[in-house]
Design goal:
Layout (H helix, E strand, L loop, with lengths): L1 H19 L11 H7 L5 E4 L14 H12 L1 H4 L8 H4 L10 E4 L5 E4 L6 H15 L4 H11 L14
Antiparallel strand pairs: 1-3, 2-3
């Protein structure tokens, strides 16, 4: 329960500060178009598992680290949620999970992707989806809400199969 309360608090702070333009998570990321130009420079880094964050996250805000860890723990959910930042075309992502995790190895190791560190859209979609899932919404409901929320003014969604 403490983790859920912390996550809700972080998500609320993240959304409020992102809307006011003062979030440390999204500051200095530039316009969405410049994000698309840099996706080919995404860094992948392997760690022994979800409990070990990659080096590229160590100097990032704690709220970003928490969203990354939560994303990795919610693979089934986020593999069913599209991303609307343009990464489907620019980075060949298939869903929102790909913005955070490049590969899950049989050994339990995880190959992280730094794409989400450069994109507020990726972070917002993951955080909102996970929060809604923790509150009991179905994957189908969450998918429908995300599709509706990002249908106008954003890039084409990743080619995520329908739920």
């Amino acid at each position: 329960m403490k983790v859920k309360i912390l996550f809700i608090s972080i998500l609320s702070t993240f959304i409020i500060s992102a809307c006011s333009g003062q979030s440390k998570v999204v500051e200095n990321m530039g316009e969405h178009a410049s994000h698309q130009e840099h996706t080919s420079y995404d860094i992948q880094e392997e760690t022994k598992g979800i409990s070990e964050i990659p080096h590229f996250l160590k100097d990032k805000p704690e709220d970003m680290q928490i969203i990354y860890t939560a994303a990795a723990k919610n693979k089934e959910l986020l593999e069913n949620i599209p991303c609307y930042c343009g990464c489907g075309e620019s980075a060949n992502h298939k869903n929102n999970y790909d913005c955070f995790v490049f590969e899950n190895k049989v050994s339990g190791a995880i190959v992280w992707d730094d794409h989400g560190t450069k994109c507020g859209v990726c972070l917002e979609i993951a955080a909102q989806s996970i929060l809604d899932y923790q509150e009991g919404k179905s994957i189908k409901e969450i998918r429908s809400e995300i599709d509706e929320m990002y249908k106008d003014g954003y890039a084409r969604p990743t080619p995520t199969p329908e739920v």
